[in-house]
């Protein structure tokens, strides 16, 4: 097939845009991440004198870093429309967020759509695959206190013990509110066949758009973070009890991400912007934690039911282009999530100015010392 001049021009424009966006992303990382680390090194005395203020400042810087990632997609035309319950109503409470996992772009989508949810991004903790520890953002997540979990049966029991210890040590001491995890334990394309085989063997529903979730991390989070009046278990420790007047985990937010035509956006697309502008749809359903069972069998059934509901939601979305209305209602209401371009430019400007400041400072110190 002959390539027309118009197609060649369009391809050239797309390649040039992708190259410029990649260069901007690299520059963005080179100034923003070292600046985040250096600011927190300088603020170490404050961490000793006033830990709460230190982690407040760290949380603000962390939110700005995530906003920079969100801006890469936002300026490429990758936007979000939200459905279901309004999670802003519980943004100041402790909550566990359960998300279906299709691609690396899921994390970027959450970074975007949670930006306008009050203090959520500043006070959230992520559970992510340990491989992310070795990415450019790994040092940021390590400092922030996110948990990197190793997948696989050989590591499972040890990882759950480490997760419990991590939550007891960092969750309340750093004033975390939301904890985000992907219970499927991997991308849809990688786990679907295994999940369907397991479902067939155990007489469970056949799922195409999600996979059956794993129990371990969800159960550890509930047992560790739910307040004693909710589950009758001891709190996470005397030190934690003194540090926090928390009411404990109060909500479970079941979050379902749907991409147009079922084609997920990956991190490469998010960065390079070579795909046409697209709207990602995110559906929320909020459950009081008192309605969530803690016994392993009952919790497993409860989790399976959530992902069966996700399957039905996604099937309806891919057939109609919209999520179904809540039970008892005739129409589903969507909300377009927006970000302020002025705010994003201000954050990016702060990052580049900070990078320039640290560069000049180190140049000055080098001249003084050598």
UniProtKB/TrEMBL annotation:
Show the stretches that span the lipid bilayer: 20-42, 54-75, 131-149, 342-366
| GO BP, one annotated term | phosphatidylinositol acyl-chain remodeling
Q: Per the database record, which ranges form the Phospholipid/glycerol acyltransferase domain?
A: 95-219
Top-level division of the source organism's lineage = Eukaryota
Q: Which GO terms describe its cellular component?
A: endoplasmic reticulum
Q: Which UniProt keywords apply?
A: Acyltransferase, Lipid biosynthesis, Lipid metabolism, Membrane, Phospholipid biosynthesis, Phospholipid metabolism, Transferase, Transmembrane, Transmembrane helix
Q: Which GO terms describe its molecular function?
A: acyltransferase activity
**InterPro entries from the entry?**
Acyltransf_C (IPR032098), Plipid/glycerol_acylTrfase (IPR002123)
Question: What would be one Pfam family of this protein?
Answer: Acyltransferase
Coiled-coil segments? none
Q: Which family does it belong to?
A: Belongs to the 1-acyl-sn-glycerol-3-phosphate acyltransferase family.
Stated name of the protein: Lysophosphatidylglycerol acyltransferase 1
Q: Which organism is it from?
A: Zonotrichia albicollis
Its organism's taxonomic lineage begins at: Eukaryota, Metazoa, Chordata, Craniata, Vertebrata
